[in-house]
Structures are given as C-alpha cells and as structure tokens.
Design goal:
The N and C termini lie far apart (50 Å). The longest helix has 16 residues. By secondary structure, the chain is of the alpha/beta class. The strands form two sheets. Strands 3-5-4 form a three-stranded parallel sheet, with helices on one face. A two-stranded parallel sheet has the order 1-2. Strand 1, helix 2 and strand 2 form a beta-alpha-beta unit.
Length: 202
C-alpha cells in the first residue's frame, strides 16, 4: 500500500538533456522496484543533444538510453523527431552553424520562409553594442538571444555593457558562462518576455 502512494504512473521529463546521469540511474532503480510490486511507474523522456548547456553536468542521448537500459538500436522504445517547426527555413539554415550535431543530428529544414538573417560588421565593439540596444528596444514583448564569440570574458563584458544600457527599460539581461556561478545555466529564464539572453558560442 505504501509503494502505491509513491508510484508515479507515467512520468514525463521534458528537456531531458539538462539532467545528469545519476538522476536517470535513480529513477530507473525506483521504477524497477515499483514494477516488481506491480505498481505502475513508466518514464518518457524528451531530449535534444543540441540543446545541452553544460557538457559535464548534462546528458547525451546515449547516456540517457544507457541509464534507462534502452538499446540504441531499439525502434519500439526510442523515437527520433527531426522536423523543425520552430523557425523559418532561412533562420534554420543559419542556426545549423551552431548545432553540435550529436545523436540528435541536424533537424530537417522547415517549409515556412521568411527574411534572411543579416550579418552586420562594425569597426568598434561599442558600435555593435549600441546597434544591439536599438534592435532590442524596437522589439518590445519579445525574447532575444545573443551568441557571443571569443572568450568567457567577452560574454561577461557584453552582459555588463547591455545591462547598463538597458537599465531604464523593461528588458532583463541574463547570461550563461560555463563555470561562472553568477551566470549559471540553472538561473536562465526562457518563459518571460522582454528578456535578453547572452550565450557563449563555444
């Protein structure tokens, strides 16, 4: 009777790549124990290698399969979703530059079309920051992502400069810098509008 109270029925885990291997190991062990006592405890995980933020703490698809004891060759317990419905064809082509291409692979290009991404060159870093600020303030009610090339210090510098320029606006600036507790991936918020997220390309 006590085991029935903790049986979860069917557990759905979204963004499964953001959890570590030990969690899946523990869940599978608990699930096995519950099933031995005829308590339903199934697990379904949605995960994408390309969206891992931290390679040392997060899971690959292969690691999730291993911990849940699912064969990589299984066609009955593993399903691949490869179609991109989120972006336009032009943006998807551009974003493939940043996909790490692990087991998830490159997504199929969408049919929907839109404007082509524009690459703008500038002679000074300050001009780039000012240009970004103008684009941000002209797009109220949106979420904006900035991918920063260079070092981790460049990410922090971009964060500081944009935070200062946007301090009297409705926008909140957040950043992820690997190994930096102040800019941890755990604190990133992708739900609220009027947010600017700065990430490191590498």
């Amino acid at each position: 009777e006590a085991l029935k109270k903790i049986g979860w029925g069917h557990l759905l885990i979204d963004e499964g790549q953001d959890f570590n291997k030990s969690m899946y190991f523990a869940l599978q062990g608990i699930s096995d124990h519950l099933k031995k006592h005829e308590v339903d405890s199934y697990i379904t995980v949605f995960a994408d290698d390309n969206q891992r933020l931290n390679s040392t703490e997060n899971c690959t698809i292969d690691e999730i399969l291993e911990q849940l004891r699912i064969s990589p060759e299984s066609n009955s317990r593993k399903y691949m979703l490869s179609r991109n419905f989120r972006n336009t064809n032009e943006i998807a082509k551009f974003s493939q530059t940043f996909q790490v291409g692990n087991q998830s692979g490159l997504s199929e290009l969408p049919d929907r079309h839109g404007e082509k991404p524009v690459v703008i060159m500038s002679d000074t870093y300050e001009n780039i920051i000012d240009f970004i600020k103008r684009k941000i303030t002209a797009n109220i009610g949106t979420q904006i992502g900035i991918v920063t090339d260079g070092t981790k210090k460049d990410v922090t510098s971009t964060y500081n400069k944009l935070s200062y320029r946007l301090k009297n606006t409705d926008f909140e600036v957040q950043a992820f810098v690997s190994g930096n507790d102040k800019h941890s991936y755990k604190d990133l918020d992708f739900e609220e509008l009027n947010t600017v997220t700065i990430l490191h390309k590498n």
